[in-house]
Amino acid sequence: MTISFNLNDLEELTLKTKQIQENVLEEILTLNANTEYLRQFLHGSTDKELFKKNVPVVSYDDVKPYIERVANGEPSDVISGKPITRFFLSSGTSGGKPKIFPVNNKFYEDMSFIFAQSSSIISTHIKSVQQGKSMTFNFVRAQSSTLSGLPVSTGTTSFLSSECFKNRPSNVFTSPDEVTLCQDNKQAMYCHLLCGLVQRDEVVSVAAPFASTLVNAITFLENYWKEMCSNIRSGHVSDWITDLSCRDAVTNILGGGHSELADLVEEECNQKSWKGIIARLWPKAKFVQSIITGQNAQYIPMLEFYSNKLPLTSPLYASSETLFGVNVNPLCKPHDVSYTFLPNFSYFEFLLADEGNKGEIVDLVDVKIGSYYEPLITNYFGLHRYRMGDILQVTGFYNSAPQFRFVSRKNTVLSISLEATTEEDILKALNHATLILEHSDMLLMGFTSYADISTHPGHYVFYWELKAKNNNDTVKLDNKVLVECCCVIEESLNAIYRQLRSKDGYIGALEIRVVQQGTFNSLMEIFISRGASASQYKTPMCVNTSEALEVLESNVLARFFSDRSPPF
Ligand code: AMP
To answer: Any residues with CB less than 8 A from the CB of 244 and at least 6 apart, and which?
Structure first.
C-alpha cells in the first residue's frame, strides 16, 4: 500500500489524520518488521499494539551503532526494509560530532510535497505570487561519503542536488541552478544577489530556508553593492566569480550593461539608512519568507527593519529525521506562528513534557491544547520511537490535525546560525580554557555567555569576571593568555560551530569581555529580585534578557577576540 496525495490535499490530510497515521504505521511495520533492529522487539510481528508495548523510546546514542553499521557497509536491513541510499547530516550533535540520519529517495518526494503544499498555501493568501519570481538564497555544501561510499550531506544540499529539484515542475527562482549549486558560498551569494537585482521587477518574494541567511544576504549586499552596480553597468561579472558554469549563467542573465538599473540600485543603496532596503530594491516583493521560529526568532526585528514590515512568512517545520508540517496561516504575526502537522510523512507520537507531569505518550490526534510535548519519530528509514529533542506546544487544531508552536530545541543555549551549542558544549570548552588560565595569575570568578547578533556575522561573547590569584593584587589582564582562551574555547566547540566559523564565515571570532569584579553579584541580585531562589541560585550559562545584558555591558573592562579560525 503506497500512500500518495495530490497537491490540494491539505484538507484531506488534515481531515483523515487518524486514519492516515494508522496506515503509515502499518506500512512502516510491514516494511521494517524483519530488520535486525525491530526483530529484537517484535520478532517479525507487525502488530501496532505490540509496537507500542515493546519498542523502546530511544535517543540518538541508542540507535547510533545501528546507523553506523549501515554507514560502514552492512546491509540496510539492519534498520530499514528499503535500501538506504544516503545520509543526512543534521545540525544536532552527539558527543560533539554531527549526527547522521539514513534516508532514501522517498525523503525527496516528501520534500517536494511539503514545498508544493506551502507554496499553494501562500498563493491562496497572497494574490498573484505565481506570476513572479522568488529571489531565494539556497546554498549547497560539499558532500562527503561514508566508509561504504554512500553520500553524506545536509538535507538541503541533498535535495538541491537531486533529480527531484532539477526536474521540478516549475521554476520560480531568479537564480539559475548553476548559482544555487555553486559550492563556493561566497560566489553563490554574490551571484544570487546580482541575479536578483537584475530581475528586480519580477521579484515577488525574497526567501531563504532560515532567517539568519537572509540577514547575511543583506550584510553581504552592504559590502558588495558598489561592485554589483559596476557589474550591472558594464554587463561584466567580476573576475573573482571563477566558477565557470555559475559565471556563464549569470552573464547570460545580465545580458549586457544596464546603466539605468545601476543608477537606480546605487541611489537606493547610497541612502544613509537601510531601513526598508528590501522593499526599496525589490518594489514588487509581496512577502519575505524564511523560518523565523526557534533560534531564528532573534532575527525578526532585523528583517522587519530591512523589509519595511512586508509580511514575514515562516513556511514549514522540518528536520533531517522527518518533515513535520506547514504553516497554514502564513500571514499571522511572526510570534504567533504554528505548524500544522501533516500525517503522511512519519508516524508521530508525543512524549508529554509539561513540568511535573512528564512521561505520558500520546498519538498525534490525542495531544491536548496548551500542553508541551517532545515528538517521537517512527520514520520509513529506520528510526523507531526516536526522541527528536525539540519541545513543542499545542496551540490548536486544523480539522483534526494538531498545530504546534516551536518552543525550543532541548538543551540548546547558544546559536547564531545553524549550530546548536548546548550547556555541555559550553562547559567542556570552558574547562579547556581554564587549563590555560591555570598558568597565569588570573582566576575565573564568574562567567556567562551570549550570542551577539548585533555584529555581522554574529559571534559568541563570554563574559568573564577575573580576579588576581594573589588576594591583594589587582588583576593584570594578559592579552596573550586571554586571546589564547578565546581560541581554545572555539577549538573545543562542536564541529558545526567550527565549520560555520572557519569555512563558511557565518560566525565571527569569539570574544571574551572581562567585567569588573562584583558584576556577577549584581547579576545574581537581578535574578533574585525577579523570583529566582537565593539559596539555589546558579549563574545562567547564557543570558538574553536586556536587563541582565545591561548590567554586564555597563561593567565591561576589556575585550579579547580569538585570532585564528578553529580547525574542523
Ligand atoms: P536539521 O536536522 O539540521 O535540519 O535541523 C532540524 C532542527 O532545526 C529541528 O529539530 C529544529 O530544532 C530546527 N527547526 C527546523 N524547522 C524549524 C522551524 N520551523 N522552527 C524552529 N526550528 C526549526
So the answer is: none
Report d(CA 414, CA 443) in Å as an integer: 24
- How remote is the CA of residue 298 from the centroid of ligand 1, in Å? 15
Query: Does the CB atom of residue 409 touch ligand 1 within 6 A?
Result: yes
pLDDT by position in tens, the chain (length 568): 344 444 458 999 999 999 999 999 999 999 999 999 999 999 999 999 999 999 999 999 999 999 999 999 999 999 999 999 999 998 877 766 789 999 999 999 999 999 999 999 999 999 988 889 999 999 998 889 999 999 999 999 999 999 999 999 888 999 999 999 999 989 999 999 999 999 999 999 999 999 988 988 998 999 999 999 999 999 999 999 999 999 999 999 999 999 999 999 999 999 988 999 999 999 999 999 999 998 788 788 889 999 998 999 999 999 999 999 999 999 999 989 999 999 999 999 999 998 777 789 999 999 999 999 999 999 999 999 999 999 999 999 999 999 999 998 887 889 999 898 988 889 889 889 989 998 898 888 889 999 999 888 999 999 999 988 776 678 899 999 999 999 999 999 999 999 999 877 899 999 999 999 999 989 988 888 877 666 667 778 888 888 999 999 999 999 999 999 999 7
CB of 152 within 8 A of CB of 68? no
Q: What is the whole-number distance in angstroms between the Cα of residue 78 and the centre of ligand 1?
A: 27
> What does the H/E/C string look like for 359-413?
CCEEEHHHCCCCCEEEEEEECCCCCCCEECCEEEEEEEEECCEEEEEEEEECCEE
For the record, the C-alpha cell of 536 comes out as: 539555589
How far separated are the first and last CA of the chain, in Å rounded? Answer: 45
Does ligand 1 have an atom closer than 6 angstroms to the CB of 155?
Answer: yes
Shortest-distance atom of ligand 1 to CA 294? 21
Q: How far apart are CA 125 and CA 121, in angstroms?
A: 7
Pocket test for ligand 1, best of 313, 317, 407, 418 (most atoms within 8 A of CB): 317
Cell readout for 482 is 586571554
Whole-number Å distance, alpha carbon 317 to ligand 1 midpoint, is: 6
For residue 152, list its beta bridge partners.
Answer: 87, 144
